[in-house]
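## retry 2 of 3
previous attempt timed out at serialization; input unchanged, resubmitting
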Amino acid sequence: MNVTEIPFNKFLGLRPGEPGSASLLRLDAGPQYLNHVGTVHAGAQLALAEAASGEYLLRVLPDLAGQALAVVRRVEAKYKKPMRGSLSARATTPEADVRQAAEPLATKGRAIIPVRIEVVDEQGEVGLAASLEWFVQKNR
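## retry succeeded, writing output
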């Protein structure tokens, strides 16, 4: 599965992060992403964070693709500063924490998996820190 091909993410223009960087996904600068004060809209930032958290789950738990249903259950977001220009998202959750949270998936067929994401600007400054809780259930 490629999260950039999900219709909403494609509509937004989300792109894969730069190879070799910590960036999972990118959102290029554009006037369509701006709010009433000329900074990147909070909704665009959150959409980038949500998509990046899904991308991170697929990278850490590649067996999920096609084998489980995963949906966001809860989001907690803190906007730290106004964002301008191109943005990227990176995971701050250690891979081992995600794998441990996914252990009930093997025994119970479902799990709650938290993923922490930061959205950063071109200078690497954090504008949004988010925690997304995914409900994951194996296909029957």
